[in-house]
Amino acid sequence: MSKVLVAALPVPLRFLLATALLLLVCMLALNTGSVSIPFTGLFGFAALDEMQSTVLWQLRFPRLLLALLAGSGLALCGALLQNASRNPLADPYLFGIVSGAALGATIATIVLPEWQLLTPLFAFFGALLAVFLVLLIGARSRWQRLETLLLCGVAVSFMLSAITTTLLYLSEPFAANRVMFWLMGSLSQASLTHVALISPLVFITLLLGLLYRRQLDALVLTDESARSLGVKVQPLRLIILLLCAAVSAAIVACCGGIAFVGLMIPHLVRSLFGLSSVALLLGSVWLGALFLVAVDTLSRSLLPDQELPIGVVTSAIGSLFFLSMLFKYRRG
Amino acid sequence: MGQTPVIEFSEVQLRIHQQQILTALNFVIQPGQFVALLGPNGAGKTSLLRLLQKEYQPSFGQIKLQGRPLSAFSQSELAAKVALVSQLSGPLFDLTVADVVLMGLIPHKALWQTNTEQDLQQLKHSLELVGLANKERHSFAHLSGGEQQRVLLARAVMQKPLLLLLDEPTNHLDLYYQHQVLRIAKALDITVIASIHDLNLASRYCDRLLLLNKGQLVADGTAEQVLTQQLLTEVFRIPCLIDQNPFGDCPRVSFGYKDNL
User: How confident is the model at residue A159 (pLDDT cuts 50, 70, 90)?
Assistant: First the structure.
């Protein structure tokens, strides 16, 4: 039923619809919370009191921007990595980025408590360390196959997780708790500094993705066929991998672990917007943003006077999505 | 004559991991020739095609494309002159037929250039040429093997190459499409080098046959010159008979052991 409805709409109209939905969700995100801000206030028709205006501009607005950026960035990286590796399960997290970030955060919280304020910075470098290790192994195998890189990512992930777990086991419970909460992911620390850090990375990645749209399409067939069209396959892959690593490392450092967005959204986009690179990349940016803003609003309002960690909500939705995809494939 | 040859091999050798793959190849291919590469498995057909795509570099000797050393071409310069149709395993993510054919524009477009009206006309024309008119919006992965192969041929046409390489283009195709694909390639009227296993297809469609055995060029000429009983029996190690193809004036090869003789 929904498929027939989608098929009846031309693609530009689908984008328009998604944009309208996105705006609506953004309005809801600004409106919802322990301090309610009326819609009339959002549009400037009604005066906001001091409390409301502080909440709006100091808390909700940066948080909304961060949700938009993190959602679109993670979905964009997922789409790029899936196409570049021809692997439908590729995801920014497969390259050990989250485990690296977790290790960085753990070190900042437990080993060097005096550096605690710099947790995001430590997490960022932890994530980069993980990617560096994966690339080091990849370079040794001369970039023969991207599958090798993915498997290296899994191995590095486990290795770094083992170190993190050992550190947590030896630490005092209170500090361990803080790390655990950080890992569950949250946008509550959002600030305009975060937004300024992530936005250029996401924009550059999107721009390059759109410029190389034909080459990315060509990668979907075989490497040999792409090379015969003049595509420099290995350098292109390496650039994609590095950009995605930087984007996801920055997002994980600011927001903690938000799983499944990069894996799930591109699959949705392929069925809703189409498969060629332009539709896939733009669609991922739109839907990723829409999804994360909606989930963040939901996680703020599900429990009274308390926030659910956003990573928990995305994981719950993601795992259900994954199962439904599995059954869909089995039915053919 | 007076025309620059499309391809010139002079004393080309290829060694990979200390193993001699191709030995002392010398031949010249003129514009417009439809050349078949024949030979048993391991004879070096695919390696020769890889040399032409610069996937391999010759260990000795030189290959020239239109009089210029192949090594002087950048990858994208080469892609603007040489197109390849090889076998595919089914793509994972489903593209439309138009997406696949438009990839042929990659060597001719700067990153920021969009598709013009003329490009779209050419897309239509290429698909008509391979008998897939009005299938632009169809899903590539859901086409039959023969149709996918023809879409790739349309992509090669879009690439406007000087030289078309076909790597066992008729594998996995049924009889109808084996003939269809070679007929379309012949009708393009450009220089074609095709590695083919079926000697009768080569005999029927190709102007010139190159027979490789153990990395050496053992015969080079028309079907009548190359498809001889003695040579084929020796190279393919199966007894064979040559007679006339009843459908046309080309030789027909039959292989087989006579058990009840």
Answer: very high
Q: What is the pLDDT of residue A3?
A: 58
Could you tell me the two tokens for B234?
């020796």
CATH entry, A2-331, from 3.60.15.10, 1.10.3470.10, 3.40.30.10, 3.30.70.270: 1.10.3470.10
What's the maximum distance between 2 C-alpha atoms anywhere in chain B? 70
Chain B segment 157-176 residues within 8 A of A by beta carbon are 159, 165
> Any idea where the domains of chain A sit in the sequence?
2-331
Residues B95, A228: C-beta atoms closer than 8 Å: no
Give, in words, the CATH class of B1-79+162-226.
alpha beta
For residues A246 and A128, what is the distance between their CA atoms, to the nearest angstrom?
Answer: 7
CA distance A42 to B62: 72
Q: If you measure CA to CA, which chain B residue comes closest to A207?
A: B112
Site from A227, A228, A236 to mutate, B interface, most B CB atoms within 10 angstroms: A228
* B181-238 pLDDT, tens digit each: 899 899 888 999 999 999 999 999 999 999 999 999 999 999 999 999 999 988 998 8
Tell me how many residue pairs between chain A and chain B have CB atoms under 8 A apart.
80
Nearest to A315 by CA among A185, A125, A171, A137: A185
Q: Which residues of A touch B (CB under 8 A)?
A: 82-83, 86-88, 211-212, 214-215, 217-218, 220-222, 224-225, 227-232, 270, 274-276
d(CA B38, nearest CA chain A) in Å: 22
**Mean pLDDT over the full length of chain B:** 89
Contact A217 B104 (CB under 8 A): no
* Cα-to-chain-centroid distance, residue A74: 2
Mean pLDDT of A264-293: 92
Q: Mind listing the pLDDT tens digit for each residue in A52-78?
A: 888 888 889 999 999 999 999 999 999
Query: Rounded CA gap, A234 and A223, in Å?
Result: 9
